[in-house]
Amino acid sequence: MKRRLTAWLSSLLLASACSGERVAPVPSRDGVAKPLGLFSRALEVGAKERALAALERDARRREARFREVTEPGYSFRVTRVPQREIDWGLWSPGELFELGAQLFHQRFRKEDGFGAADLPALGRFQRGERGGPDAYQCADCHRRGGPAGGGDFSDNAYILGDGDRPATALERNPRALVGAGLIELVGREISSELAGQRDALIASAKAARAPRRSELTSKGISFGFLTARLDGTLDTSEVSGIDADLLVRPFGWKGRAATIRELVESELATHHGMQSEHFVATASEAMKGSGPTEDPDGDGVIAEITEGQVSALTAYLAMQEVPTIEPPLYLQEWGKPNIHFQPLWNEGVVLFRELGCATCHVPELELSSTVFTLPARSGKATLRVDLAAEGAEPRIKPEADGRVVLRAFTDLKRHDLGEFVADAFSERGRRPSEFVTPPLWGLARSRPYLHDGRAPTLEDAIMMHRGEAEASSSAYFALPEDGRAAVRVFLTSLTRARRFAVP
Ligand code: HEC
Ligand code: HEC
């Protein structure tokens, strides 16, 4: 509350400073955007409470459906939160989470801007960077295993094709979006550490008047070697797993974005033909279409997605719950206490490291700060959410000693995984067999596996690890059956909290 008030006061001060003696109007909400109580960040304590809360939310959804059929466009309109109201601090993170959730489950209509004049009404195979549109809502694909989950094989997207033939497109399985805010944060921390190491190396080469070569490392992960030449330029040929700009891009199977916000805007555009104000102002013609400046997709709707809506969707995804690790302590064989799985799980934890899985699927990454910030593009106010205090439950909890540890099982780097997983051609300059190590948290709830969902089981996924992961995959298959089962038991314990949902 206090923070909101200060943000508000400082915006007042700024406004009056600019406009001389005129007093700025007291900011208030315009009354259009509304959280409807359909989605919640909370996990109620107790099964009965959870079930009742789920039933209540379902009843509200029913109400909202009636409202929508009597007042078409209502449910989209109530997500149109103005960015200035967010900048003024008039919306709490919890309310933005709800608005974002409403948008994520919003069936976009033509009247809202769905689709484009130069694209078919719906296209299963995307056309270049322009996209489908191939779905009516985000949750059509991100739905398996819980809110903002992954997708099934039949939900796969076909990207960067000719809009017609599947063989021209790259097949991609929808990724689970759990813990996305923390992944972005850990990526940002690594990127800024690497940038610091680069700057220091350039300075030391200058001071020594000699080239300098040094290893790039952050959070115990090596990103290869960097050489600073005498003239201040860099030799990045030995950098590994990230681009030459040393920016970590954990999002997308190929590692194509550093931030959730970038993907929110490109997903809106390619899957739904919903173009945000920022996208319209900044994207290339190949991405947005060649219609009028204000309406590049030529469908007659302008400002299809406002900056505020992008912020709300980004906040929703950044605040996603953190997956859990649930060892099979309580599994019972109808009444008899289970004696089998717990020792296997213990063995699986050890084997996961011994086989070398943990070199890429890094079990623990320490995070310095859990505060997710979304800078306003105006450069002024900032949306700030402490994920440890305000994220969706279950949220990240500091350890007993105060450290914050992410158990995401990724190194955020790209690796060459060999011929079994290779695409038919490269994506945006990335080699066909190169993918970012996907986080394994929540794994039990995100079948099928790999970038195109080609692996129906965990063992199929491991079998397809070749290239840099060949040694660890072979070591897995050299194990006796109980050893392999132990690894699978451990992987199956990577799951998500149980929620009730009314279908
Ligand atoms: C047609 C299915 C489909 C729809 C609809 C869809 N997505 Fe996705 N989403 C995908 C696929 C496939 C990927 C992986 C893309 C890649 O590898 O580049 C993905 C990846 C993402 C990611 C990156 C996650 C990560 O960890 O890499 C985000 C964020 C995301 N989607 C958000 C959204 C939002 C927001 C919407 C709605 C505006 C949406 N998606 C609609 C299929 C879909
Ligand atoms: C050299 C790095 C590396 C090593 C070592 C490695 N992996 Fe992977 N793993 C990856 C990459 C990259 C992918 C994504 C490949 C794709 O999408 O085609 C992946 C995907 C997976 C997936 C599927 C995840 C999903 O969400 O679809 C599982 C499960 C998995 N690995 C388990 C293991 C296990 C178990 C081991 C050890 C036996 C292991 N990995 C060793 C890099 C590695």
Question: Which short descriptors sum up this protein?
Answer:
503 residues, alpha+beta, Cytochrome Bc1 Complex, Chain D, domain 2, 3-stranded mixed β-sheet, 3-stranded antiparallel β-sheet, disordered N terminus, binds heme C
Write the layout of secondary structure elements.
Layout: H1 2-18, H2 47-70, H3 74-77, H4 83-87, H5 93-104, E1 125-127, E2 157-161, E3 170-172, H6 180-208, E4 212-218, E5 221-228, E6 234-235, H7 260-272, H8 277-282, H9 285-288, H10 307-318, E7 324-325, E8 332-333, E9 336-337, H11 341-354, H12 357-360, E10 365-367, E11 371-375, E12 382-386, H13 387-390, E13 404-406, E14 414-416, E15 434-436, H14 458-463, H15 470-478, H16 481-492, E16 494-495
Parallel strand pairs: 1-2
Antiparallel strand pairs: 2-3, 4-5, 5-6, 7-16, 8-9, 10-13, 11-12, 14-15
Helix pairs in contact: 5-10, 7-10, 11-16
The structure holds heme C (2 copies).
One heme C binds next to helix 7 and helix 10.
